[in-house]
Design goal:
This protein is mostly helical. Helix content is 66%, strand content 2%. The chain has 13 helices and 2 strands. The chain binds acetyl coenzyme *A.
Length: 315
């Protein structure tokens, strides 16, 4: 584009953002806006797909047919979320195959939380309650993100996530009404997941290199610390109703701020997990790679079938 044309395009883009209107795939956008979206949406999509593993590990060991049916449906929903997000990302000009290669090469991230193991069935409940609860907190504002296809994908995802959150809470509530041993399992699970869940929101604002620009572009609508605070405030009364203790001695209501004070997550642990040194990083990526390789024949067959159908008049 000519310099003055470029300026006009930039001005139109800026005006759309300022109106809090949507940018659509065919609109002009700055290269850095596009690459930031690809980075965030791809990371989000990968998280949904890798996130099937910790809970998927319990499908064959669910305690009843009812729990198994619920868990199967939930894990399938996560696959669906990954697919809508890959599709949203494809509108920016990168294919799902490229994104998968980047994930497997360790060049794109996925959420830190999925690098922790699931050690008991209570973890299925805790993931629904806390992990999906945190995901909702982070994702409801993303329904108003500035990029149209991403925001529209988030609407359906959030509806399904809120069902996931409730099924987790219901599972934990059932266990809390059970035996002492079951109550201890729930508490142990909450103790393990609490701090890693707080890390899902990302580094503190002062150490978040992307936040300021992503917020100026309307990609993110809230900062990492704002959402973390909102999640803590939302979760405390739920923990009380459930009868579990959140493992933070510094957690208390601050009447002056009208919010809870809480302790600092271990940011060194967070950095290590992101570097690939969490308890399950290697296992998660190896499993994803094996599933991708074992699925090659399905992709080839589907491509051959599509080609043949097109040759026969698109049937
Ligand atoms: N796990 C892994 N990486 C993380 C995490 C996390 N919990 N939090 C931040 N990071 C990464 C960022 O991707 C960024 O790395 P990069 O620049 O190499 O891509 C780096 O740490 C610095 O963080 P920020 O500057 O704060 O990054 P950003 O502005 O992208 O904010 C956030 C991070 C809040 C996760 C944002 O990307 C987001 O809202 N994403 C959409 C939600 C999402 O991905 N959810 C997935 C988990 S929920 C679920 O699937 C159930």
């Amino acid at each position: 584009a000519e310099p003055d044309q470029e300026e006009r395009l930039q001005a139109a883009f800026d005006a759309t953002i300022a109106r809090r209107d949507r940018i659509e795939p065919r609109d002009w956008m700055p290269d850095a806006y596009r690459s930031t979206l690809v980075r965030q949406i791809a990371q989000h999509a990968h998280s949904e797909i890798i996130g099937m593993q910790p809970e998927g590990d319990w499908i064959s060991r669910a305690p009843s047919l009812r729990r198994k049916a619920i868990l199967l449906a939930k894990v399938q929903d996560e696959a669906g979320h990954g697919l809508y997000l890959y599709a949203a990302c494809e509108t920016l000009g990168v294919s799902r195959a490229e994104l998968t290669d980047l994930l497997l090469a360790g060049r794109q991230k996925y959420s830190s939380i999925f690098n922790y193991p699931t050690l008991s069935y209570a973890d299925v409940g805790t993931i629904g309650w806390l992990v999906d609860g945190a995901a909702i907190c982070n994702q409801v504002p993303l329904c108003r993100t500035s990029y149209g296809p991403y925001g529209r994908a988030m609407i359906r995802i959030c509806k399904e996530e809120s069902f996931h959150q409730r099924q987790g809470y219901e599972l934990l509530m059932t266990m809390m009404r059970g035996t002492d041993e079951q109550r201890a399992m729930v508490q142990e699970s909450v103790d393990r997941f609490w701090w890693p869940v707080l890390m899902m929101f990302g580094p503190p604002d002062a150490q978040s290199p992307n936040s300021e620009r992503s917020m100026a572009w309307g990609i993110k609508r809230n900062s990492n610390d704002e959402l973390r605070q909102k999640f803590v405030d939302m979760t405390v009364p739920q923990a009380k109703a459930l009868g579990v203790t959140l493992p933070d001695p510094d957690l208390r209501w601050n009447a002056e701020r009208g919010a809870h004070d809480f302790g600092e997550p271990d940011w060194a642990e967070f950095a290590a997990v992101i570097r690939g040194e969490g308890p399950c990083n290697a296992q998660r990526v190896a499993h994803r790679r094996a599933a991708h390789e074992e699925g090659a024949w399905v992709r080839e067959a589907a491509t051959a079938f599509a080609r043949r159908s097109a040759g026969e008049g698109g049937r």
